[in-house]
Amino acid sequence: MLVHSRTGKWTTWGVFGLLFVPLFALPLLVILAASFAGHWSGAFPSGFTGEHYASAVRGDSLQALTTSLVTALSASVLALTVGTWAALAAAALKKRGRRVLDGLFMLPVAVPSVVVGLSVLVAFSKPPVILNGTSTIVILAHTILVTAFAYQSVSAAILRLDPVYEQAAASLGARPSYVLRRVKLPLLLPSLTAAAGLCFALSMGELSATMMLYPPDWTPLPVQIFAATDRGSLFTGAAVAVVLMGATLLVLFTVSRIRTRASFR
Amino acid sequence: MPRWVWALPPVLVLALVFLYPLALVVQQSFTPDSGGTSLSPYRTVFASDAFREALGTTVWLAVGATVGCLVLGFFLALVIAFVPFPGGKAVAKFIDVFLSFPSFLITLALLFIYGTVGMANGLWTGATGAASGPFQFLTTPWGVLLAEITFFTPFVMRPLLAAFSQLDTAQLEVASSLGAGPVRIVRRVILPEALPALAAGGSLVLVMCLNEFGIVLFTGAKGVTTLPMLVYSKAILESDYPAACVVAVVNVALSVGLYSIYRVVSRRVGA
Question: Each residue of A224-237: pLDDT tens digit?
């Protein structure tokens, strides 16, 4: 459309490939290659082995995987509940009230995650509520960080919702709670599952706030990867990173399956 | 019951777990370890070289990365949208997947590619027989800059691709049939349409770069300290909470200020 000549097109694609492949495709491939590498001291890895995976799904790393999954699942469920509730309540408000709620719930996006971690640490290390050193404090920080994204995607979905359905239901005498349960939430289901997938992926990869808070017996995968690379075990770190990416992708894929099935209803 | 009552429970939860802790951070930043309320933590922190350097590094890295992301993202999105090629859809899908991975994976990958014994240096020493390769920038701010541009460019590309899909391609055909070259079409037709998406994507990336921690932590360089890194090292490594809170307040003021501008801009352009 933009470039018509044959050579022009191929030049453009060539430049595109030269930028895209080393910047975006190579990093992920390299991590994958390194996770199988016995050693890497030249141009290419050598001595391929599955050893790093053996240690990545055992002991500490296995525990880190379950820790991450539990944390991400709890944080997503909590964030989705609070975020959906807030988005539904905001949609019922007038313009100004909605704007206030938008500002409040989107604020955690702007605040650095490290500061969210610090603030939770400062607030819940002293009475009345002491959570310092528990798994709850990690889940709490993750929930705060991902709620904004749940709120954002659910309120965008509510905006796109055709008000005709709920008006029809209400005109037939359905009470608000019935309309919410039988009309609005089912219509929002595809967006809710998409939001859940997003929250889950973000929580799985969360490092900044977690580094401020994690107790020794609750180390999620990103912390594990950092610990491995920090002590020089780059290949183990890469294998754990592949496990992290795989788990995230698997959940996102499952969620998108639910989503397409839900949209057929 | 008025409608705003339903908004109260989630707002109360947010206030308890997010706003109240933030307020405590501000309060702590005015409370030196010696007790009382004073500005002395601010004076100490503002006077320290480490803080000034971190502030400078954070700002120039964020601005540099944003400019890099905008230029690169604009070009890549332009090619995907207007010089279509087989597999372009898959590339766009790949960008979406890329967004769901954590940032520090990029730094981890760069260690294998440009690290002292990585691919690039390995190729170089293999080809020339030199003892060490020329790529030693990973532990400098340039390594962080490269990682941030790589990780955040997709955040610019997504709104751009959305904006480009709204653009009527007939406009391009008309401009082209009237004799406009590609550069002119990009400048006069596409760029004005893309400006809102560029502004929205750019300011979002700027805020996220100001707040980026994982990339800097994984770089592991003592020479590169940004504000979030300083918060971490003051609080966790030095247990100096008042100083950590001061740096946190400065960082929050910077990014929340910018984020408000982003919200205003994106609301005005309806992005």
Answer: 999 988 888 888 88
CA distance A82 to chain B (A): 6
Q: Are residues A14 and A141 in the same domain?
A: no
Sites in chain A below the pLDDT cut of 50: 265
Domain co-membership, A42 together with A55: no
Instruction: Name the domain count of chain A.
Output: 2
**CATH code for the domain in which residue A117 is found:** 1.10.3720.10
pLDDT at B66: 95
Query: Please, what are the averages of pLDDT over each run of 10 residues along chain B (271 residues)?
Result: 83 92 90 80 86 91 94 92 85 84 89 79 78 77 91 90 85 84 84 86 90 88 83 89 92 89 73 48
Instruction: Check residue A229 and give its pLDDT.
Output: 87
CA distance B38 to B41: 7
pLDDT in the model for residue A71: 94
Last residue of a domain, one of A49, A70, A85: A49
Would you call A13 and B83 a contact, using CB atoms and an 8 Å cutoff?
yes
Contacts of A245 in chain B (CB under 8 A): 101, 105
Q: Do A111 and B22 touch (CB under 8 A)?
A: yes
Gap from B248 CA to chain A (nearest CA, Å): 6
Contact A82 B169 (CB under 8 A): no
ipTM: 0.88
Q: Are residues A7 and A124 in the same domain?
A: no
pLDDT of residue A265: 45
Q: Say if residue A15 is in the same domain as residue A75.
A: no
Domain range B47-268, its CATH number among 3.40.50.740, 1.10.3720.10, 3.40.720.10, 3.40.50.11750: 1.10.3720.10
- If we measure between CA atoms, which residue out of B252, B243, B262, B223 comes closest to residue B29? B243
User: Are A164 and A259 within one domain?
Assistant: yes
Based on DSSP, count helices (H) and strands (E) in chain A, helices before strands: 13, 0
d(CA A118, CA B16): 15
A73 with A2, same domain: the answer is: no
Could you list the residue range(s) of the whole structural domain that residue A189 is in? Answer: 51-264
> Whole-angstrom Cα distance, residue A140 to residue A75?
7
Interface of B with A in 72-101 (CB under 8 A): 72, 75-76, 78-79, 82-85, 91, 94-95, 97-98, 100-101
The per-residue pLDDT for A133 is 80
